[in-house]
Amino acid sequence: MPSARISSLEMGRLLAIFAVIIIHAGPLRGEAYSQNINIVSDALNQLSRFAVPFFFLLTGYFVQPKLTQDPLHTFRRYAKPLMIIWLAWSVIYLLLPFRMDVVMSEGYLTERSGYWNYLLEAPLNTLFEGGLVHLWYIPGLLCALGIMALLIKYNQQSLMVPLALGLYVWGLGAGSYQVILEGNAPIFTRNGPFFSLLMVVAGFELRRRNITLSSNIALTMFIGGLLMCLAEGAFLSQYDIWMATHDFLLGTPFMAIGIFCLLLNNPKWGSYPIVFTLSQRVLGVYVAHFVVMIILFNVFGANGIDGPTKDMLLTPLTLLLSFGLVMALEKMPFTRFLVQMENKGAHIASNNSTAKTKAQ
């Protein structure tokens, strides 16, 4: 077992990828359930929204030493393999049909052309997103790392936090709060650096300044952030905005930083070989899980599986089969690049230095 890695954060990766799949599966939702159960579904959706911010925090935390020492080289080492993964999976999702019933009845091009035309309606946004909606994470991460690398390179590191806060407020004003603040942005503000920069900078600063929070404060932050998100979602619902559509709200950073610090305070949580084995495949599962989910949606639809039965099957099957798919792709040299960063050295070195620091 790679003891140099922080087991609680590796467990956090697994919790986060499970939360991502919960968001995309959307359990307890629809006409099969009562209104109260649908409200529970919305609350579960917001609870799961810590996931991608948690991934951003992890990157900022682990990349901090190398990004500080050699910002542009470090950025390039991260950017190249991530862009290859993003481009490859964008092509896969552009070619993969979402509805086999339409393919069988009207043909492949008919099924695909509607989606392609949808993406072409907003080409700039598509550039910051990719071939399917969840791939926005990679351009968002690289936007954040690129901005940080440039600021460090030109000795403007003091601008990181105010710039990140400003972009976050802009993102909210042109995103979830657009109906009130009437903000505008050139792209959908979940994409790009609007929200990613603050979360990556937060992880970076936690490491650089050696900031620690007690477990009680961290847990309070997490619960308080969640309650803020639920309150914000309920408030915005009066403007006919569905709670489950909010990717980031005012409470989201508090929720993500709270759970991150709580896990960091308890490094031995999740110290099991299976955690380390699975956590190193989380990036692959993130980019690949929609392949499995699309197949399952088609199988369930063809067999009339819906409601509670679908909900009981969709999330666990997606998780299990996605890990299986990633492991299978790892086995073949010509597909390994789809699910693994070729440059893993920097990431492992960051984990090692963290463990040594905490041990001293």
Description of the molecule:
By secondary structure, the protein is an all-alpha fold. It has one domain. The protein is built from 17 helices and no strands. Helix 3 runs parallel beside helix 8. It is globular. 40% of the residues are buried. The C terminus is likely disordered.
Please summarize what this structure is:
The chain is mostly helical and 360 residues long.
- Oligomer state of the chains in this structure: single chain
Main sheet? none
Regions with pLDDT < 50 over 5+ consecutive residues? 344-360
Number of helices: 17
Morphology = globular
Radius of gyration: 20 Å
Straight-line distance between termini: 21 Å
Number of β-strand runs: 0
Query: Average pLDDT, to the nearest integer?
Result: 94
Strand proportion: under 5%
Give the helices and strands, then pairings.
Blueprint: H1 7-25, H2 35-47, H3 51-69, H4 71-95, H5 100-106, H6 108-120, H7 123-127, H8 137-153, H9 160-173, H10 178-181, H11 193-208, H12 215-236, H13 252-265, H14 273-279, H15 282-302, H16 307-331, H17 345-359
Helix pairs in contact: 1-3, 1-14, 1-15, 1-16, 3-4, 3-8, 3-11, 3-13, 3-17, 4-8, 5-6, 8-11, 9-11, 12-13, 15-16
